[in-house]
Amino acid sequence: MVSTTAIATLFFALLGLANASPIETEHQQVKRCTATISSYSDVATAVASKCATVVVNSFTVPGGKAFDLSGLTTGTTVSMAGDVVFTAAQWDGPMFIIDGEGITFQGNGHQFDGQGAKLWDTLGSNGGVTKPQFLKLKHSGTFSNLKVINSPRQVFSIGSNSAQLTVDNVSIDNSAGDQLSSSGKPLAHNTDCFDVSASNVIIKNSRCVNQDDFIAINAGSNIQFLNNYGSGGHGISIGSIQTGKTVSGVTISGNTVVKSDNGLRIKTVYGATGASVSDVTYSGNTVTSANKYGVVIQQDYENGSPTGTPTNGVAISNINFTGTNTVSVASGGQEVYVLCGSGSCKGTWDWSGLKVSGGSKGSITGNPPIKNFSL
What we know:
Largest sheet: 11 strands, parallel
CATH architecture of the largest domain: 3 Solenoid
Number of helices: 2
Strand order of the largest sheet: 4-7-9-11-14-17-19-22-25-28-32
Shape: globular
CATH topology of the largest domain: Pectate Lyase C-like
CATH superfamily of the largest domain: Single-stranded right-handed beta-helix, Pectin lyase-like
Distance between the termini: 91 Å
Strand content: over 45%
Structural class: mainly beta
């Protein structure tokens, strides 16, 4: 017969397990608690707390310092409850860092203000005062519902995620950077909304108003860019692809690009070797009033100054347009411009899903294997 004392001991032991604060994960423990960030001094403490939830209230990040959420415990949820202002300063950044596994970042409609107008000088990251890169995402999980304004230069840099990362419903507004300097150039420059050098990334339902690439995919595989809106920049880009970089398995679908220099672009660096772009599918995209090119694939890129002579060290294969992609260009633009190196554009290029209009027809050189489309 089991004694009353033994039964009581077992009961309280089970009760203790039920109320234990840590949630065991494969690598770490997440505590059933909430850490709150209301000032910059709270950031490191919140990360070290290992709490399952981190709430971010309104506060100001000092100049030259990062809002650093590196090392969050697996499964942490970060929830914005206020806006964050980043004090302008001359440094490289990034101004915000988040990493970890299975992290959920919920912006809840709040705002990050990069105070870029205090640093813009028309040169971006190409010179002038040193400007910080804004947001560095290195986590797997989700990042959603945040508004970002006035980035000093590149906005989202995505890399080093260990598993799938989904960016959903973010809004990037750098329209203030369109203001012209005394030389007639926009004050903001190199304000790419999304720079991707990672695999297993989905970016969807997001909005970008800027002065450079809507997205630039520089390396990685299994990348999806879905149902996004971009205005005022350089369009949707793969590249510029540098030596040793590989991009494969990209789906670009349901996006809208308006009032941008380019619509859909693949650019490889002049002289680059040991690199490739493969298996890219465009489906259901709309480009309106592209200023320079509707669709452009060039193998002569040199940071805004193409050489006009392509090289063939980067293989481009299997570039397809499916469904209906409607691309229009402004009166001074070209509908399609393709410049391939000798033998470097190969595989299947079925462009039956591409419809172009406006401007001049452009040109296709280098014998890319395009079928079901002609200028």
